[in-house]
């Protein structure tokens, strides 16, 4: 079978927001399972998602509970990508907790199943999260990425994020060290 061409097939990608999930307990349960599978498999394969070891089921469930509570409070957005009827990706942003940073939010844990990468899913998720941030009146959307994560950094730059700083050799994975790259999208300055 011919493999799918890279970076297309966006038409088959459906990006749902968290409200669609929480309205259906069955869907929410399946989402927690899929999110764990996607995140744990990616970390196992060396992905730069903040974990050295694959997160446990409980750890991911706790994280999702936290994000979904924040979504209900208007302090977060969570997007889930479906491709060909399967959950293949997720991403979210959380408003900063520090009182002086409340107008701003940080995008975290953008993750697409390895088998579904290169087909526009990550781009669709990130674009939806940016639109959510705009809609919620977020002023500055930040994120950080590991310096060697060229695909992710290319994606973020292509959607308008700019680098505002870098901590050299800050990310520790065993004995290896990588730069931590800080990016921002100032939504006050965009149309
Ligand atoms: C980063 C990630 C979310 C991108 O998701 P994706 O669905 O593969 O991305 P898309 O198909 O939407 O492609 C977006 C860009 O990423 C790059 N890219 C993604 N997959 C690629 C691949 N297999 N080969 C080459 N480039 C690729 C391309 O530069 C593409 O840009 P283009 O549209 O101009 O060609 C995904 O690779 C991933 O989950 N990586 C592991 C976790 C991670 O690093 N998350 C980010 C933490 S900061």
Automatic annotation (TrEMBL):
<keyword id="KW-0012">Acyltransferase</keyword>
<keyword id="KW-0808">Transferase</keyword>
<protein>
    <submittedName>
        <fullName>GCN5 family acetyltransferase</fullName>
    </submittedName>
</protein>
<dbReference type="Pfam" id="PF00583">
    <property type="entry name" value="Acetyltransf_1"/>
</dbReference>
<feature type="domain" description="N-acetyltransferase">
    <location>
        <begin position="25"/>
        <end position="180"/>
    </location>
</feature>
<dbReference type="InterPro" id="IPR016181">
    <property type="entry name" value="Acyl_CoA_acyltransferase"/>
</dbReference>
<dbReference type="InterPro" id="IPR000182">
    <property type="entry name" value="GNAT_dom"/>
</dbReference>
<dbReference type="GO" id="GO:0016747">
    <property type="term" value="F:acyltransferase activity, transferring groups other than amino-acyl groups"/>
</dbReference>
<dbReference type="InterPro" id="IPR050832">
    <property type="entry name" value="Bact_Acetyltransf"/>
</dbReference>
């Amino acid at each position: 079978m011919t493999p799918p061409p890279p970076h297309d097939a966006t038409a088959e990608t459906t990006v749902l927001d968290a409200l669609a999930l929480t309205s259906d307990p069955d869907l929410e349960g399946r989402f927690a399972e899929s999110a764990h599978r996607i995140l744990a498999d990616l970390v196992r394969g060396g992905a730069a998602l903040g974990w050295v070891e694959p997160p446990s089921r409980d750890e991911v469930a706790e994280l999702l509970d936290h994000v979904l509570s924040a979504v209900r409070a208007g302090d977060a957005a969570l997007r889930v990508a479906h491709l060909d009827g399967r959950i293949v990706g997720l991403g979210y942003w959380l408003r900063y907790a520090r009182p002086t940073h409340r107008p701003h939010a940080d995008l975290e844990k953008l993750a697409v199943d390895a088998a579904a990468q290169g087909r526009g899913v990550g781009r669709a998720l990130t674009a939806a999260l940016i639109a959510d941030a705009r809609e919620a009146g977020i002023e500055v959307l930040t994120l950080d990425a590991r310096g060697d994560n060229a695909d992710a950094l290319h994606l973020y730059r292509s959607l308008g994020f700019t680098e505002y700083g870098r901590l050299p050799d800050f990310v520790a994975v065993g004995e290896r060290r990588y730069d931590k790259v800080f990016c921002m999208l100032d939504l006050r300055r965009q149309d």
